[in-house]
Amino acid sequence: MIGRRIATDLVERLDSAPAVALLGPRQVGKTTLARMIGAERPSLYLDLESDADRARLAEPELYLASQADKLVILDEVHRLPGLFQNLRGLIDEGRRKGLRAGRFLLLGSASLDLLRQSGESLAGRISYLEMGPVDGLEVAAEDLPELWSRGGFPDSFLAADERLSQRWRQDFIRTYLERDVPMLGPRVPAETLRRFWTMLAHHQSSLLNAAEFARALGVDGKTVAAYLDLLVDLLLVRRLEPWHANTGKRLVKSPRIYVRDSGLVHTLLGLATLEDVLGHPVAGASWEGFVIETMIAAAPEGSRANFYRTAAGAEIDLLLTLPGGAVWAVEIKRSLTPTVERGFHQACLDLKPERRMVIYPGSEGYPLREGIEVMPLQAAGAALLGS
User: Fold this and answer.
1) Is 122 helix (H, G, I), strand (E, B) or coil?
2) Is the pTM of this model over 0.90?
């Protein structure tokens, strides 16, 4: 059992809001965490992919009203979109009786559908929390290479060997393409979406070039945008937006694209072992995406994540704007002897960030000139958690 940092935040939200939506890809551990929290208080778990549990909600208001003294956990809640209107009435009725928090925990495998369904019905009544795969701050330092290679889905990371981990990820991708995408999104040919997903893995950390993808797939740019939106909404791909500010510089406007789980990147490219990954050109970009996901997960609530790049070549891999307005500039290197290019120095002159750091796969931190700190991933993440 891997302790998840998000558990504390989830309990706090349940103790202050009548409904909490826990969003994340399938198999990321949402149900395990929800059941663990449910075991500590009176609760009822309903899996809405189960015919038996859906039958119990034939008259949802009557049934759920009788469970008002429990935390009701509704798994795969997007399967019953009409339920949100019923939840609104139950929450409002409960408030009149003094039941103001901890009524419903909603688990969903996609952001767009759940947000669209709940946004109007439960406005002001629901708190949203995203749960990603296990990140680099949730394992021991010696396990980081394996976490990077296998990815953060618990069943993949904890598999008995690399062959079983790779098989799990292959099955995960197949299930998403053949079962979940048709259920959660528009009808997209599974093989076409697999090709697109694989192309994104090949272009990990690159600027989005929709025209190039469109030519390769034989579709138009709008179709590529729809495919990308779908994978972003399923929380499988991150679209990292460029920093926009009036700096007087010509800024790059295209987003950078990352397959969010490094293990899925490697499986889509046919890389089964850590040695395979280290010998492949994607290693640096994959490590960059892995670090970015960990740092974003560690950032305080309300932080903004961007990258910075100008036409003149000034560039920062990750720019974190914290809630108080402080800006952290993060350069990500796969080398054990990282060097900082001129573009990073120029970007720091443009933006004057509060902290400047280079994250690398080594185990010791040390200073460089101009206030730059070279740091292991876990030290950088710990600094961010304490900010």
Assistant:
1) coil
2) yes
